[in-house]
Amino acid sequence: AQSVTQPDIHITVSEGASLELRCNYSYGATPYLFWYVQSPGQGLQLLLKYFSGDTLVQGIKGFEAEFKRSQSSFNLRKPSVHWSDAAEYFCAVAKGKTSYDKVIFGPGTSLSVIP
Amino acid sequence: EPEVTQTPSHQVTQMGQEVILRCVPISNHLYFYWYRQILGQKVEFLVSFYNNEISEKSEIFDDQFSVERPDGSNFTLKIRSTKLEDSAMYFCASSGLGDTGELFFGEGSRLTVL
């Protein structure tokens, strides 16, 4: 069964600094990978997704992620963090890209941004 | 922009009571899901629903839970006899046909069982 790990439970960065959130997945075939963000008290918003092709994917809000098959990783990056980026970030994997394939979430990484 | 809406936003209930959480998915979507997030924990898959039947369910989705699409627009999650450990945020999601793979989530319904 597919699974997702996010090694960092909580990360604090200074505003304007760069950010990298780690994600590792376990799945035998080519996974379909997602990053979602959850602001306090809010629902889940899709930041970006990887299905195939270019391993560097661009998302909303200036985020990008790189799929590395050899490392089973899909790390999220942002070159300059804004205070509004403080939120919970979830990496997720689906076994297929059709709409009925369930998405499995990692445990999440909480991001704090200090001025 | 179309969105998934959920009601109620917060419900408090006594242990043993029945609860129905309601969701209105995006209108042209055909696949529907419920996820649960216990406070401070990860988002867990409960059930997926397509063509008026359950496609897949997790081990969490036991006989106390049921889902229904009663009228072609609403998608409901019923918990027949709530337990303390059912206290969580429940998220509804929907997705459309094609290779999008994207789930569109509602804002969630917070359930507190006393």
Characterization of the model:
The complex is a heterodimer of chains A (115) and B (114). By secondary structure, chain A is mostly beta strands. Chain A is built from no helices and 12 strands. In chain A, strands 2, 5, 6, 10, 11 and 12 form a 6-stranded mixed β-sheet that branches. Chain A has a 4-stranded antiparallel β-sheet with strand order 3-9-8-7, with no helix packed on it. Chain B has 114 residues and is mostly beta strands. Chain B has one domain: Immunoglobulin-like (Sandwich), CATH 2.60.40. Chain B contains no helices and 11 strands. Chain B has strands at residues 5-7, 10-13, 19-24, 31-37, 43-50, 53-57, 65-68, 75-79, 88-95, 104-105, 109-113. In chain B, the strands form 2 sheets. In chain B, strands 2, 4, 5, 6, 9, 10 and 11 form a 7-stranded mixed β-sheet that branches. A 4-stranded antiparallel β-sheet of chain B has the order 1-3-8-7, with no helix packed on it. In chain B, a hairpin with an 8-residue loop joins strand 9 (88-95) and strand 10 (104-105). Chain B is globular, with a radius of gyration of 13 Å. Chain A binds chain B through residues 32, 34, 36, 42-46, 49, 51, 90, 94, 96-108, and chain B through 4, 30-31, 33, 35, 41-45, 48, 50, 55-56, 91, 93, 95-108.
Please report the total strand number of chain A as a whole number. 12
State the share of residues found in helices of chain A, binned by percent: under 10%
Rg of chain B (CA only): 13 Å
CATH topology of chain B: Immunoglobulin-like
Low-confidence stretches of chain B: none
Average pLDDT number of chain A? 90
User: Which residue ranges of chain A are poorly predicted, with pLDDT under 50 across at least 5 consecutive positions?
Assistant: none
- Tell me the count of domains of chain B: 1
